[in-house]
Amino acid sequence: MNTREESEKKRYSHCNNIQEREDVIFVYPIEFNNDPNMIANAMQKVMNFLKEITGLGPTTFFSQRVMVGYRHQNDEGGHKTKPIWTQNRISIPWKYLKMPNQPLDVCTHELVHPFFRCSPLHDRNEGWGEGFCEFLRGPLKKIVGLDGDNWWKKMIKAAQDKVDSSYSYPAGQFVLKAYENYKSADGSRTISDLISDHDAISSYVKSIFSRFEKISLSTYIEPSPKMIKKWKDKNKI
Fold first, then answer.
1. Domains annotated on the chain, with CATH
2. Rg (the chain; Cα; Å)
């Protein structure tokens, strides 16, 4: 680990075990009851996919690897009840140690954040980050052996029902827009085909980066009322 990574690890005082990969450092406590080697390999697999489809490299951008760790209640910020990505670290609440499919399920969302942060979208479209992460969560779930198909169906239903969320509502619209492009080339293609077509997902993501680097994604997909209120509160709209 470099100096910055060593400093970040100190934030996870109850995690004495470590798995290091090219772009990920996974720190975990003795109470962790899954295979840490398998988990770290799956995290790196997610990072490899995201590097492939985005053409971005957050490890270089942040001058450190993503650190994923369990935050004990007594650690700084340990009172937080939900996982969070900040400054290229992913802090997972201690209670998630007992939850099924963790920490991989959390990471299918949180590991997208560093890519969004260093993408062309961030400066002009920061408020769309959660929805973008939830969109890519579908194929990422499949990559780590979770149910990505039903995840996308859930996002699509949220978009169709206009659920007031900064996560599922924009995510579902991203899925539907991506599928519009995909189906236009071959009407027999299904959404299940798209979620496994990494080249098509990459082409769509890079087209979004190019089109919306300087203009708002609001011209392309509809923000939820919750998103609009948040932007107004932050004077972002």
1. 16-117 (1.10.390.10), 127-233 (no CATH)
2. 18
